[in-house]
Design goal:
Layout lengths: L7 E3 L1 H8 L6 H13 L5 E2 L2 H8 L3 H14 L2 E7 L2 E6 L4 E3 L1
Antiparallel strand pairs: 1-5, 2-4, 3-4
Helix pairs in contact: 2-4, 3-4
């Protein structure tokens, strides 16, 4: 059975906040859209090294990008599961349909 497709809607707040992010590099934007397609609403553990490999970026770039997204509020960090933190999209900025 194929996985169910889902739609993600950006809120007006998200669009306004994106426009105000001076540190939003192309790599950080790439990371954000990867996370939009990857993360369930409940969050999941993420291996940033693996994510860097998938995106063709360095671990430092992904770590810095994740810090930018956390600081801006687009992504929320949850508890650790083993050695990995869980992350989820901030529902103030994104809605799953």
């Amino acid at each position: 059975m194929a996985p169910a497709s889902r739609a993600i809607v950006l809120t007006e707040r998200a669009i306004a906040s994106l426009a105000k992010q001076p540190g939003l590099t192309q790599a950080t934007a790439l990371l954000l859209w990867k996370l939009v397609g990857l993360l369930p609403i409940s969050g999941q553990p993420l291996n940033l090294s693996q994510l860097a490999d998938e995106l063709g970026l360095t671990i430092a770039t992904v770590t810095n990008g994740m810090q930018t997204l956390l600081k801006a509020g687009f992504v929320l960090r949850g508890p650790k599961v083993g050695r990995l933190h869980t992350y989820k999209l901030n529902t103030a900025y994104f809605h799953h349909l």
